[in-house]
Amino acid sequence: MDNGHEPATKADLDQLRSEFQHSFDDLKETMRDGQTELLKAIYSFAQSADVKLKEGEIADIMLRQRLTAVEFRVTEIEKRINLPPQAQ
């Protein structure tokens, strides 16, 4: 198969098959490496997004606690304004 005009031998076909398999194996490995890198990036993004969501949830809880305290105080003020003092 040196000059391109002679018929291919079984050895030539085996060599071609071997080279093709090697190239295919390299391609599979490259694709797996790409998948691994992509998964690492997705997991990293997911972790940072999770941290931000947790921070938002904590801030929400703290804000609700403060709002509850303010609402309680306003209710107490309204009671004093709207209800006359009890005679003793």
Quick structural summary:
This protein starts with 9 loop residues before the first helix and ends in a 6-residue tail after the last helix. With 88 residues, the protein is mostly helical. The protein has one helix and no strands.
What labels would you give this structure?
88 residues, mainly alpha, 1 helix
Description of the molecule:
By secondary structure, the protein is mostly helical. It is 83% helix and 0% strand. The protein is built from 1 helix and no strands. The chain has one helix at residues 10-82. The longest helix has 73 residues, at 10-82. The protein is rod-shaped and about 120 Å long. 0% of the residues are buried.
Number of helices, counting only DSSP H or I runs of 4 residues or more: 1
Instruction: Work out the strand percent.
Output: under 5%
Q: What about the largest sheet?
A: none
Gross morphology: rod-shaped
Portion of residues in helices? over 70%
Q: Count the beta strands.
A: 0
Which structural class matches the secondary elements? mainly alpha
- Let me know the average pLDDT: 92
Topology:
Elements: H1 10-82
